[in-house]
Specification:
Layout (H helix, E strand, L loop, with lengths): L5 H24 L3 H9 L9 H13 L1 H8 L12 H16 L5 H15 L4 H16 L13
Helix pairs in contact: 1-2, 1-3, 1-5, 4-5, 5-6, 5-7, 6-7
Length: about 150
């Protein structure tokens, strides 16, 4: 798979935004994934998103939650449950992508996560998210990341 075209990249960006919001809702409400998926599919503008990517993120992040959280938890300064729910959704989604979507460069994943956090997270939270995901990428994408897996800090 090559790099997505600009329209495809925009569709994927929208899919990530919607998936982050859906994962936040799942975390906070306890609603079923299928109910949340149906609700989001009816939202205005959903047709502009990459629906397949949205569905993958919405269903696979919860399915692999333990593995996803284990990927970034060592780089947190507090337990996962104490992370702001928006930031938790962003970290889960981006870490899932770092783990499984090797077709997407780690820098794209981190950039998208930082942008989502700037838009929806607490003020300055994007810096925290960037640091956690950069360290996660060093471990998960050692071949791709310039500081590799052995990095301290």
């Amino acid at each position: 798979m090559g790099q997505p075209t600009k329209p495809q990249a925009a569709q994927r960006t929208r899919a990530r935004r919607l998936a982050m919001q859906a994962l936040y809702q799942w975390d906070m409400s306890g609603n079923t994934l299928s109910d949340i998926e149906a609700q989001f599919a009816e939202e205005d503008g959903f047709e502009k998103a990459d629906a397949e990517y949205f569905n993958e993120l919405l269903h696979k992040v919860p399915a692999r939650l333990d593995e996803v959280e284990e990927a970034f938890a060592p780089y947190l300064d507090r337990p996962v449950k104490e992370i702001d729910p928006v930031e938790r959704a962003v970290l889960r989604m981006a870490s899932y992508e770092l783990l499984t979507r090797l077709d997407v460069p780690y820098k794209v994943i981190i950039n998208e996560a930082v942008n989502l956090t700037k838009k929806f997270g607490a003020e300055q939270a994007h810096k925290y998210i960037n640091g956690v995901l950069d360290q996660t990428a060093r471990k998960l994408r050692a071949v791709e990341h310039p500081q590799g897996a052995g990095g301290s800090t």
